[in-house]
Structures are given as structure tokens and as C-alpha cells.
């Protein structure tokens, strides 16, 4: 029997000013809740896919991270959500991109995997599919978040003043990877993408092999950071490939991929777990919200707290 383990992230941290010190206890409590919920599933012998889906759902729903109800806004002031999930036991995967009315993007991604022969559905097609599957549909206003809207208004005014649409800051995508006691791995990622992303922009999160990958032979991975770089380097698949073909460890392979991305000018982080339960949580951003839990130990890592924080 394997040693069930869950690893989660709440995104790479780009700018300390994006995080409110007064809300550290909340960030921590939702990360802890996601870990506890997912781990309880694993500990009862449940599948890695369920643990990943449930942990991500908690982070989508809580409104604290850049996913679901905490999603950042596009340049046009909309929230467009991307999510994906992958089953390491059979390499099946599902994803949705640019959706605005699906309450649980991660569950829609799982439905694409389980109920279609496709991998990625986008926009209105994905929404029609979710409706057909009787997944919960909401008005786009369900995701509205006044804190993120406030950031959007400020960032857009700055970008307009600079007459520059590119603004690569982001604000904490979420993801989870798990190993269950049958030895199966799963990975999932969910995001609102980057601040001020342009119409129709799709990042790495719903791209299998870029933002998400799982293969029982090696590892399960979920990425966060400037998605364009993770797509251009096939980041998640590349970690798997380095382990498979170059015999690298998860720690070496994941650091090498982040270093390559950094050389190209991009930053971010990732979480990974191997089929023997080894965990990695490297990043090149200033920090990354993340944590893991198994029967021996657990950790929730927050951005270094400001001195006035009560944490
Ligand atoms: N990787 C995500 C994207 O580019 C953003 C993030 O991780 O925060 O859409």
C-alpha cells in the first residue's frame, strides 16, 4: 500500500503588495481546509482524482485565490476561467478554458475527461457541455469579487496611462497533486489567469503538459506563474520527460525547468509528487502559497508574514 499524500498550491507570489496582511489567517485556513478535505479522502482509501478535485474546489469557492470566485479580471473587465485535471493511471485528461458561467471549473474539466473523447473544451461550447452534464451554471456575476475588481481598476488605469496592455502580474492560481494508496497519481490546476489578460487569452493551466501533467510512471505536477513561458517550454511534460529519459529526480527536473523559464524571462513555481510519495514545491517567484499532508507530516507554507501579522 502506498503512502497517500496530497500537495496543494495557492499560486506563485509576484508582488507582496497584492497580499493583505490582515487576511493571512484566512489564506492559511482555506489552504488548511483544502489539504484536510483532500487528505481525508486519500486516507479513507479514496482516489487521487477525488482528492485533487475536492481540494481545488475549496480553493475555487473561497474567493481568496486567483481561481473561481477570486479570479482576476481581463483587460475588458471580465473573469474567464481555465481548469484542467489528469489521471496518472491512464493518462486521461480533461480541461475547460475561458468559461464564465460554470460554478466549478475543475469539475467541468473532470467531466470533459470522463464523458467526452476530447481533452479541452472552450468558452460557450464548454458551458453548453457543462449544462448538458447537469453541472451547476451561474450568472458571471457569481464570480465577481470586489477586492479583485479594485485591483483591476487600479492596474488598468496604470496600464492605460503607460499605453501598454501587457501586464504580467498574476495573483495566485490554485492546484493540487495527489498519490493515493493504490499508487495512482492525479493532478489538477484552476485559474482566472493573468491580470489584464487580453480577450480570449488561454494560459498554461488548461494545457495538458504545460500547466498540468500526471503519469504514474513518474510524477504528478501543477504549475503556477507566467503561463506563456510554461506553454513554450512544455513545462509539466518536460519535468516528466527529464525524469523518464534523463533519470533526473523530481527535485532536479522541476528546478531545471524553472531555471530554463527564468532564463527566458519568466517566473513561477510548481508542486509535484512522485509515485513513491516524494514531494517538491520549488519556485522562482518571491514565494508561493503551498502545502502538503501525509500520515507523517504536514506543512502549510505562506508568504513570509509581515511583522505585524498575527500568524
Ligand atoms: N499560470 C497562470 C496563467 O498563466 C497564472 C498563475 O499561475 O497565476 O494563466
Description:
The chain has 311 residues and is an alpha+beta fold. The protein has helices at residues 24-43, 48-61, 105-115, 123-132, 146-161, 227-232, 235-245, 250-264; strands at residues 5-13, 81-87, 92-99, 120-122, 174-179, 185-191, 212-214, 219-225, 268-274, 279-280, 287-293, 298-301. The protein has one domain (5-305): Glutamine Phosphoribosylpyrophosphate, subunit 1, domain 1, CATH 3.60.20. The chain is 33% helix and 23% strand. The protein is globular, with a radius of gyration of 18 Å. The model is unreliable at 306-311 (pLDDT under 50).
What's the structural blueprint in terms of helices and strands?
Blueprint: E1 5-13, H1 24-43, H2 48-61, E2 81-87, E3 92-99, H3 105-115, E4 120-122, H4 123-132, H5 146-161, E5 174-179, E6 185-191, E7 212-214, E8 219-225, H6 227-232, H7 235-245, H8 250-264, E9 268-274, E10 279-280, E11 287-293, E12 298-301
Parallel strand pairs: 3-4
Antiparallel strand pairs: 1-5, 1-11, 2-3, 2-6, 5-6, 7-8, 8-9, 9-10, 11-12
Helix pairs in contact: 1-2, 2-3, 7-8
The protein binds aspartic acid.
Amino acid at each position: 500500500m502506498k503512502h497517500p499524500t496530497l500537495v496543494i498550491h495557492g499560486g506563485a507570489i509576484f508582488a507582496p503588495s497584492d497580499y493583505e496582511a490582515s487576511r493571512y489567517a484566512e489564506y492559511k485556513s482555506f489552504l488548511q481546509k483544502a489539504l484536510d478535505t483532500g487528505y481525508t479522502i486519500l486516507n479513507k482509501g479514496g482516489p487521487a482524482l477525488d482528492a485533487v478535485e475536492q481540494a481545488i474546489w475549496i480553493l475555487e469557492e473561497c474567493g481568496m485565490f486567483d481561481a473561481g470566485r477570486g479570479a482576476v479580471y481581463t483587460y475588458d473587465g471580465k473573469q474567464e476561467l481555465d481548469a484542467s485535471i489528469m489521471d496518472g493511471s491512464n493518462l486521461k485528461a480533461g480541461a475547460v478554458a475561458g468559461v464564465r458561467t460554470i460554478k466549478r471549473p475543475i469539475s467541468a474539466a473532470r467531466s470533459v475527461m470522463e464523458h467526452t473523447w476530447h481533452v479541452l473544451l472552450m468558452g460557450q461550447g464548454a458551458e453548453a457541455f457543462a449544462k448538458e452534464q447537469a453541472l451547476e451554471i451561474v450568472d458571471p456575476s457569481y464570480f465577481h469579487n470586489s477586492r479583485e475588481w479594485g485591483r483591476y481598476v487600479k492596474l488598468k488605469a496604470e496600464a492605460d496611462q503607460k499605453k501598454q496592455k501587457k501586464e504580467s502580474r498574476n495573483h495566485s492560481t490554485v492546484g493540487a497533486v495527489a498519490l493515493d494508496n493504490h499508487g495512482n497519481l492525479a493532478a489538477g490546476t484552476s485559474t482566472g489567469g493573468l491580470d489584464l489578460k487580453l480577450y480570449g487569452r488561454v494560459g498554461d493551466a488548461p494545457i495538458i503538459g504545460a500547466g498540468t501533467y500526471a503519469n504514474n510512471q513518474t510524477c504528478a505536477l501543477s504549475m503556477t506563474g507566467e503561463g506563456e513561458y510554461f506553454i513554450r517550454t512544455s513545462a509539466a511534460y518536460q519535468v516528466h520527460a527529464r525524469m523518464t529519459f534523463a533519470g533526473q529526480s523530481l527535485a532536479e527536473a522541476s528546478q531545471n525547468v524553472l531555471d530554463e523559464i527564468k532564463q527566458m524571462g519568466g517566473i513561477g513555481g510548481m508542486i509535484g509528487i512522485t509515485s513513491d510519495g516524494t514531494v517538491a514545491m520549488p519556485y522562482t517567484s518571491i514565494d508561493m502559497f503551498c502545502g502538503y499532508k501525509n500520515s507523517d507530516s504536514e506543512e502549510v507554507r505562506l508568504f513570509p508574514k509581515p511583522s505585524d501579522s498575527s500568524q
